User: Fold this.
Amino acid sequence: MKFLIINGPNLNLLGQRETGIYGKEDYADLVRLCEESCAEAGIECEVFQSNHEGAIVDRIQQALGEADGILINPAAYTHTSIAILDALRGVGIPAVEVHISDIDKREPFRRHSYAGMACIKSFMGLGLQGYRQGILFLKEYLDAH
Ligand code: DQA
Assistant:
Protein backbone atom coordinates (compact mmCIF):
# COMPACT_ATOMS: atom_id res chain seq x y z
CA MET A 1 0.00 0.00 0.00
CA LYS A 2 1.33 3.43 -0.93
CA PHE A 3 0.22 6.86 0.32
CA LEU A 4 0.91 10.28 -1.10
CA ILE A 5 0.94 12.95 1.62
CA ILE A 6 0.49 16.49 0.30
CA ASN A 7 1.11 19.72 2.19
CA GLY A 8 0.14 23.09 0.78
CA PRO A 9 1.49 26.63 1.09
CA ASN A 10 3.37 27.87 4.14
CA LEU A 11 3.43 24.50 5.85
CA ASN A 12 7.18 24.49 5.12
CA LEU A 13 7.31 27.35 7.68
CA LEU A 14 6.04 25.17 10.52
CA GLY A 15 7.96 25.83 13.72
CA GLN A 16 8.35 29.54 13.03
CA ARG A 17 4.89 30.36 11.68
CA GLU A 18 2.15 31.41 14.14
CA THR A 19 3.40 28.93 16.73
CA GLY A 20 0.44 29.68 19.02
CA ILE A 21 -1.79 28.11 16.35
CA TYR A 22 0.45 25.57 14.59
CA GLY A 23 2.89 24.62 17.35
CA LYS A 24 6.67 24.60 17.63
CA GLU A 25 7.45 21.45 15.70
CA ASP A 26 8.93 22.17 12.29
CA TYR A 27 8.30 20.75 8.82
CA ALA A 28 11.07 18.16 9.19
CA ASP A 29 9.31 16.92 12.36
CA LEU A 30 6.06 16.62 10.38
CA VAL A 31 7.76 14.66 7.58
CA ARG A 32 9.37 12.35 10.16
CA LEU A 33 6.02 11.78 11.91
CA CYS A 34 4.35 10.91 8.58
CA GLU A 35 7.16 8.57 7.51
CA GLU A 36 7.29 6.82 10.90
CA SER A 37 3.49 6.47 11.13
CA CYS A 38 3.39 4.95 7.64
CA ALA A 39 6.36 2.65 8.27
CA GLU A 40 4.77 1.34 11.51
CA ALA A 41 1.59 0.57 9.58
CA GLY A 42 3.53 -1.12 6.75
CA ILE A 43 2.72 1.63 4.26
CA GLU A 44 5.10 3.14 1.71
CA CYS A 45 4.80 6.91 1.54
CA GLU A 46 5.91 10.02 -0.24
CA VAL A 47 5.58 13.40 1.43
CA PHE A 48 5.23 16.35 -0.95
CA GLN A 49 5.01 20.07 -0.17
CA SER A 50 4.39 22.98 -2.50
CA ASN A 51 3.44 26.62 -2.23
CA HIS A 52 1.92 26.47 -5.73
CA GLU A 53 -1.62 25.41 -6.55
CA GLY A 54 -0.76 24.06 -10.03
CA ALA A 55 2.12 21.98 -8.67
CA ILE A 56 -0.31 20.38 -6.20
CA VAL A 57 -2.80 19.66 -9.00
CA ASP A 58 0.05 18.13 -11.09
CA ARG A 59 1.16 15.95 -8.17
CA ILE A 60 -2.39 14.69 -7.55
CA GLN A 61 -2.71 13.78 -11.26
CA GLN A 62 0.65 11.97 -11.19
CA ALA A 63 -0.61 9.84 -8.30
CA LEU A 64 -2.95 7.95 -10.66
CA GLY A 65 -1.84 4.34 -10.77
CA GLU A 66 0.87 5.14 -8.24
CA ALA A 67 -0.80 5.87 -4.88
CA ASP A 68 -3.56 3.91 -3.15
CA GLY A 69 -4.49 6.79 -0.85
CA ILE A 70 -3.92 10.52 -0.51
CA LEU A 71 -3.63 12.48 2.72
CA ILE A 72 -3.85 16.19 2.05
CA ASN A 73 -3.51 19.42 3.99
CA PRO A 74 -4.10 21.98 1.24
CA ALA A 75 -3.48 24.80 3.79
CA ALA A 76 -4.92 28.11 2.50
CA TYR A 77 -5.94 26.46 -0.82
CA THR A 78 -8.45 24.47 1.24
CA HIS A 79 -10.71 27.49 1.22
CA THR A 80 -10.21 28.65 -2.37
CA SER A 81 -9.16 25.87 -4.72
CA ILE A 82 -11.79 24.28 -6.91
CA ALA A 83 -8.82 23.04 -9.01
CA ILE A 84 -7.58 20.86 -6.14
CA LEU A 85 -11.13 19.63 -5.47
CA ASP A 86 -11.50 18.71 -9.17
CA ALA A 87 -8.09 16.98 -9.24
CA LEU A 88 -8.97 14.84 -6.22
CA ARG A 89 -12.33 13.94 -7.76
CA GLY A 90 -10.67 13.42 -11.15
CA VAL A 91 -8.21 10.78 -9.98
CA GLY A 92 -10.75 9.15 -7.65
CA ILE A 93 -8.07 8.02 -5.20
CA PRO A 94 -9.50 7.78 -1.65
CA ALA A 95 -8.39 10.93 0.17
CA VAL A 96 -8.37 12.20 3.74
CA GLU A 97 -8.12 15.88 4.69
CA VAL A 98 -5.96 17.01 7.60
CA HIS A 99 -5.66 20.41 9.30
CA ILE A 100 -3.35 21.13 12.20
CA SER A 101 -5.73 23.75 13.60
CA ASP A 102 -9.50 23.49 13.95
CA ILE A 103 -10.64 25.46 10.90
CA ASP A 104 -14.23 25.46 12.19
CA LYS A 105 -13.21 27.48 15.24
CA ARG A 106 -11.19 30.21 13.51
CA GLU A 107 -12.13 33.03 11.12
CA PRO A 108 -15.38 32.42 9.18
CA PHE A 109 -13.49 32.32 5.84
CA ARG A 110 -11.69 29.15 6.98
CA ARG A 111 -14.90 27.24 7.64
CA HIS A 112 -15.47 26.19 4.06
CA SER A 113 -13.28 23.45 2.60
CA TYR A 114 -13.39 22.69 -1.13
CA ALA A 115 -10.89 19.83 -0.85
CA GLY A 116 -12.92 18.34 1.99
CA MET A 117 -15.79 17.81 -0.46
CA ALA A 118 -13.64 15.16 -2.19
CA CYS A 119 -12.41 13.51 1.02
CA ILE A 120 -13.84 10.58 2.94
CA LYS A 121 -12.96 12.15 6.30
CA SER A 122 -11.36 15.25 7.85
CA PHE A 123 -9.08 15.44 10.87
CA MET A 124 -8.63 18.91 12.35
CA GLY A 125 -7.48 20.57 15.52
CA LEU A 126 -5.32 17.65 16.61
CA GLY A 127 -1.97 19.24 15.83
CA LEU A 128 0.52 17.09 13.93
CA GLN A 129 -1.09 13.98 15.45
CA GLY A 130 -3.97 14.52 13.03
CA TYR A 131 -1.67 13.23 10.27
CA ARG A 132 -1.05 10.02 12.21
CA GLN A 133 -4.76 9.52 12.81
CA GLY A 134 -5.51 10.27 9.16
CA ILE A 135 -2.92 7.71 8.01
CA LEU A 136 -4.37 5.01 10.27
CA PHE A 137 -7.95 5.82 9.23
CA LEU A 138 -7.04 5.71 5.53
CA LYS A 139 -5.30 2.35 5.96
CA GLU A 140 -8.32 0.88 7.77
CA TYR A 141 -10.64 2.27 5.08
CA LEU A 142 -8.53 0.80 2.25
CA ASP A 143 -8.18 -2.55 4.04
CA ALA A 144 -11.99 -2.71 4.28
CA HIS A 145 -12.73 -1.67 0.66
C1 DQA B 1 -4.32 24.85 7.91
C2 DQA B 1 -5.51 25.80 8.12
C3 DQA B 1 -5.65 26.76 6.96
O1 DQA B 1 -6.76 27.63 7.17
C4 DQA B 1 -4.41 27.62 6.85
O2 DQA B 1 -4.49 28.48 5.73
C5 DQA B 1 -3.15 26.82 6.82
C6 DQA B 1 -3.04 25.62 7.67
C7 DQA B 1 -4.09 23.92 9.12
O3 DQA B 1 -3.37 22.94 8.95
O4 DQA B 1 -4.59 24.19 10.21
O5 DQA B 1 -2.17 27.20 6.19
O6 DQA B 1 -4.59 24.02 6.79
